[in-house]
Amino acid sequence: xxxxxxxxxxxxxxxxxxxxxxxxxxxxxxxxxxxxxxxxxxxxxxxxxxxxxxxxxxxxxxxxxxxxxxxxxxxxxxxxxxxxxxxxxxxxxxxxxxxxxxxxxxxxxxxxxxxxxxxxxxxxxxxxxxxxxxxxx
Length: 137
Known about the structure:
By secondary structure, the chain is mainly α.
């Protein structure tokens, strides 16, 4: 089931890029990011209440709060940079560079989470890196 959700995530991320590129025309990228964020917040809290999971807030540990907040800050920084890059650059060039996050994630997962980094992972990272360069040059 995780694979289906991962595919859907990729489809929605692709739609996000195209819809955003159209939507930010004539709009400050920071304002556009703020509007997008409000929509995401409403949607996320809607799912929390729809699934009746709001009671779990009290059970969240201090460590989880800290890392969820840091993750939120990283997401915000990513979105602000992404929208600005999308506003001033071509979507067909911005998006592949943004997807280098896959390579960076694999490296960080190896360093900080001690996840396995195999020859297959290395080959994949190299191919993504080379593919990105080919797309943006």
